[in-house]
Amino acid sequence: MTVEDPGATSVAVRVRLDIAYDGTDFTGWARQPGLRTVQGVLEESLSKVLREPIQLTVAGRTDAGVHAEGQVAHFDTVAELDYPTLLHRLARFLPKDVRVTGIRPVPPEFDARFSAIRRHYAYRLTTAPYGALPLQARGVVACRPGVDIDAMRAASGKLLGLHDFAAFCRRREGATTVRELQRFDWVVTPLDTSATAAVSEDSGRLLTAYVSADAFCWSMVRSLVGAVLAVGEGRRTPEWVETLLAQRSRASSVTVAPAHGLSLIAVDYPADAGLAARNAETREMRTIPNAEGCCGG
Q1: Is the pLDDT of residue 146 over 60?
Q2: Helix (H) or strand (E) holding 69
Q3: Is the pLDDT of residue 25 over 60?
Q4: Better pLDDT: 106 or 202
Q5: What is the pLDDT of residue 172?
Q6: Looking at residues 193-207, what average pLDDT do you find?
Q7: Average pLDDT in the 5-22 region?
């Protein structure tokens, strides 16, 4: 890996990073002075390796404690890169709780944030009476045994589609809370899969919510999970969840699920020919026809 002569004409190359991290010991993705963040650690490492200031644009800014298995970011550089060598150097250079799993050149129109078609999250719960196993404890949240998974699935289904999710979002000035929720379902896995295991919930189950949308607003996924979990525990009905869609401000009755159960698992992008069009589309204001009180931005 070499750097071009400063006196020569340099053409910046856009580079895509695929990233995984354990968010436990990070104060979220976004760079913050004096705090350990994923962006800060990655930019510092890349800047040292490439010997130039690197600034990352990310697909989704995760909150403190939230993990990622399929985060995506991009940066521009004038360095001549040997991508396999750079990947191996970063593996030695980065701390153990963040990994760059892929690195490659992309067209200049590629934007990790604005080119994204949809983002996929997983939220993991365990109903085991002893809680989460030690090796899972940083990524799995313990919940009440015996939750009604059918009621949770019914509640989740009522939230699918294009809606104003203001009741589930922490408002940011000038930002819209209109989103298209494309997937919200639950996969149940027995924790004891041995042939002699009793067909019961005594040993607990792993409940994984898969949530996909064109985009998410601040704390939206954790609020969706918290609301549906209240249904599973019998404290609310599936119909209550649906009524929340009529609210135009954050609902105090919705409990935000703990951060460590959430992980960004994938981000989808169009083919290269569709990148520019997708960037323009994403920047347009999202609205629901005839919706009162809908915010823009």
Answers
A1: yes
A2: strand 67-77
A3: yes
A4: 106
A5: 75
A6: 63
A7: 81
Active site (catalytic) residues: 63
Over the range 79-105, which residues count as b (16 or more CB within 10 Å of their CB) and which as e?
A: bebeeeebbebbeeebeebbbbeebee
Model pLDDT, residue 260 = 97
Lowest mean pLDDT among 98-107, 146-155, 197-206, 211-220: 197-206
CA dist 1 and 239 (Å) reads 58
Q: Rounded to 5 degrees, what are φ and ψ at 230?
A: -60, -35
Q: What is the mean pLDDT of residues 251-260?
A: 94
Terminal Cα distance for the chain, rounded: 41
Cα dihedral 246→250→253→258 (10° resolution): 130
Report the half-sphere exposure of 271 (CA within 13 A, side-chain side): 1
Q: Which residues contact 109 (CB under 8 A, 6 or more apart)?
A: 115, 272, 275, 276, 279
**Beta carbons within 8 Å of 235's beta carbon, 6+ residues apart:** none
- Return the SS3 of 230: helix
The two beta strands, 118-126 and 141-142, are parallel
107/272 Cα distance (integer angstroms): 7
Mean pLDDT of 21-49: 96
Concatenate the DSSP letters of all residues of 165-227 into one string: -GGGS---TT---EEEEEEEEEEEEES---TT--SSSTT-EEEEEEEEES---TTHHHHHHHH
